[in-house]
Amino acid sequence: MDSSHPTENDPAEQPAGTASCFPATSPELDALVREIIARVADKWTMLVLEILEEHGVVRFTRLGKMVHGISQKMLTKTLRQMESDGLVLRTIHPVIPPHVEYALTGLGHSLSAAFCGVWIWAETHQEEIFAARRRFQNRS
Amino acid sequence: MDSSHPTENDPAEQPAGTASCFPATSPELDALVREIIARVADKWTMLVLEILEEHGVVRFTRLGKMVHGISQKMLTKTLRQMESDGLVLRTIHPVIPPHVEYALTGLGHSLSAAFCGVWIWAETHQEEIFAARRRFQNRS
DNA sequence: CTGCATCCCAAAGGATACTG
DNA sequence: CAGTATCCTTTGGGATGCAG
Q1: Is A56's CB within 8 Å of B136's CB?
Q2: A29 touches strand D (CB under 7 A)
Q3: How far B62 CA sits from the closest chain A CA (Å)?
């Protein structure tokens, strides 16, 4: 925002012409959107989202086995957070032993769909990424 | 918002009928894709990505001011990681004082585009999310 | 101006034990 | 089976100081 030094004026300050899809409407909305993304782009949240998208209704213990490496503690925490955000529906069957089922809500499915682009990007460009890493590592 | 999605009480294990875009080809590829997403979905990475997408070529200190709340340490770390992943290009002008510019690579721009869907999703559904949180908080 | 190194605190997260 | 509670290790990340 400070343009008090004319000698440092870069002509390359333009938005490169690409599709800038970022809302950037108001600072508050921007902050809200970021907060939502930060929660949702969490490692475990994404994995649980994928599993539920692919398998529909899944019980707690089975879900834990399908999400590789997650601890019971984090599974519970992640599911509670997703439930509070309206992404998953938690159904308790009051029987003994307890039977609790988890499934995506409509909102959860829509998020899953929105993330498709990122998954496809990662799959498409993985070679480039690893090549870049090798290049970066081998520079002296 | 609440009546727009079908009931999720289908006990069947089939993929809910939605566009399951997840690759899920081989376990290894799946793990690689997840690793990439986990790195890229990092809080600071996303913010830096957005800033560079919107402003093109930006210098270090200015970038730090634009990414609200980031410390110099995390800015450096984030930029190094993005550089090693081939997302940003780092240009050093050997003058005194030092002059270092950062800009997105083609890969970086493509990632930015891929994230569009998530940004739009967050903006579109923020009301639903906050409503769900309120509902969850006031549960008996 | 850029950025590395250090110290230090807070948060994330795993392991284990216990409960309805 | 589906959690909760506790302990403890690891990591994230801010603050400061210094160097090129």
Answers
A1: no
A2: no
A3: 9
Q: Are A124 and B113 in contact (CB under 8 A)?
A: no
Residue type, B104: L
Mean per-residue pLDDT for B111-131? Answer: 91
Of A88, A99, A51, A107, which Cα lies nearest the Cα of B128?
A107
Beta-sheet strand order (sheet of B99-104): B58-59, B99-104, B88-93
- What is the spatial distance between Cα A130 and Cα B84, in angstroms, rounded to a whole number? 9
> Closest to B107 (Cβ–Cβ): which among A47, A112, A125?
A125
pLDDT band for B39, please (50, 70, 90 cuts). confident
Give the per-residue pLDDT at A24: 60
Comparing B16 with A25, the larger pLDDT belongs to A25
For residue range B75-86, what is the model confidence (pLDDT) as tens digits? 999 999 999 999
* Domain boundaries defined on chain A: 1-39, 41-139
Integer angstrom CA distances of residue A17 from A107, A139, B92 = 32, 31, 24
Query: Could you tell me the fold of the domain covering B41-139?
Result: Arc Repressor Mutant, subunit A (1.10.10)
Residue nearest to nucleotide C4 (CA to C1'): B73
